[in-house]
Amino acid sequence: MPHSVNPGLDVGWITHAGRSSAREQRLPVRPLVRRGGLDDGFPGLEDVVVGGRRAVRTGVAPVVERRRAGGRRAVRTSPSDPSVEEEEERPPDMQTDRRLSRRAFVATAAAGSVTALVSTPRASAAAPSQVHTVGRVREAADGFWQYAWPGVSFEARFRGTGVGVVLDDAHNDYDVQIDGATVATLVTPGKTTHAVDGLAPGEHSVRLVKRTESTWAAGRFGGFTAAAGGEILARPPARSRQIEFVGDSHTVGYGNVSAGRDCSGDGGVHRNTHAGLSFGALTAQGLDADFQLNAYSGLGMVRNYNGGAPDTTYRTYYERALLHADGDVWEKPATWQPQLVVIGLGINDFSTPLAAGERWATQAELVADYASAYHGFLDTLRGRYGPETFLLVVATASGATTAFPDTAERVVEERVSRGDERVGYWYYGDAPLDLLGCDWHPSAADHRVLAGLLTDHLATLPLGW
User: Fold this and answer.
1) Is 249 a catalytic residue?
2) Which of 162, 237, 350, 404 has the fewest other C-beta atoms within 10 Å?
3) b vs e for 107-117, b when ≥16 Cβ sit within 10 Å of the residue's Cβ?
4) Cβ(86)–Cβ(17) below 8 Å
5) What's the predicted TM-score (pTM) here?
6) Class of 12-232 per CATH?
7) What are the angstrom distances between the C-alpha of 342 and each of 78, 241, 377, 427?
8) How many CB atoms are closer than 10 A to CB 22?
9) Of these residues, 249, 278, 398, 443, which one is catalytic?
10) pLDDT for 215-236, tens place per residue?
11) How do residues 398-448 score in pLDDT, each as one tens digit?
């Protein structure tokens, strides 16, 4: 992932030994550099050093305790609570707790330092009118935003030397970006206000990006808080270009930052997925476009991977904001009117052979059902976004036959023959991919390749931007 590191600083390791986890995982981060105490800009926080230990207390008083002694760091969430979660600094060849037990690991930005504050989210967050949301979100009764699709992001501007990120999420991982540079990755942070401080005085931008796919639970974001003496500024304007990406694991960025195809011993798919480095996110960022990644791993247009969960398909979930909430319907705001929708569904439909008991007796029947459903889904998109939005159907090699790309291309040809000139087809099955992501999925390098190829193809389309 992109980082901005102070010159001369080596990349280090922060490790964590969780009390309830049997497995450990190694996480690369930059070393933490403090520039003053935690009370430098954030009221109610206290940084004290006692006998070589740094203690930052929390409990009834708004303080967090963090102690370091003999190479170990203890984080006590309440001065009256005897339980302590410890972080032990170890060599890079050691591993740490898989989920970091609701604790964030921190990194240092070129402009300042970052500290994870373990505290209950407070009501001092920016108002919704000051935050630009990108993706499908729903506001909860307590003022938090809820969301489930990968790649959802939140942006704000602030004046001052620091900003806090308010979260309540034990399921997802996030990147925190300041002025366009990633300064921290938060791993299943739980209830926390994560502070970035030590910035140069003046105006800055902050962006929170959901890296992971969480189909079973909603993430919760409570807004941004300014450091003492600072303020959250007016909401950043929405970008004039908008792209929606619809798809499966290839669109999610499934396992794209894994060191190898078998990531089961290195945090699993969840920890090794970075939607912000998917080809869709990279394409949109290169074009300075707001984007949605409405993608769900393992699902197909009419058939899921290996015939699983036959009563649901991708189309079951497309209309939702919260994927785990049956009956949920996302109300499209008037501000979301993408000029382009990229649809990549079919890998799971055709990647495995039909098995006994599935509702299609032959592949010809599956192909016919898939084509009919694809037309219906494109009708849904056309009804949602109108005749001017360009619909780009994408396909790749899948399974032992060419049924997926052949059928997807035929669907496009049929629509064009009916008079819909704003629909197109793009095939990336011949792209030079290493497929070194988890379970033979595209790697981060592959996603960069795909983003470049897709960007080149988009330049040939009449998108009107």
Assistant:
1) yes
2) 237
3) bbbebbbbbbb
4) yes
5) 0.76
6) mainly beta
7) 48, 14, 12, 12
8) 7
9) 249
10) 999 999 999 999 999 999 999 9
11) 989 999 999 999 999 999 999 999 999 999 999 999 999 999 999 999 999
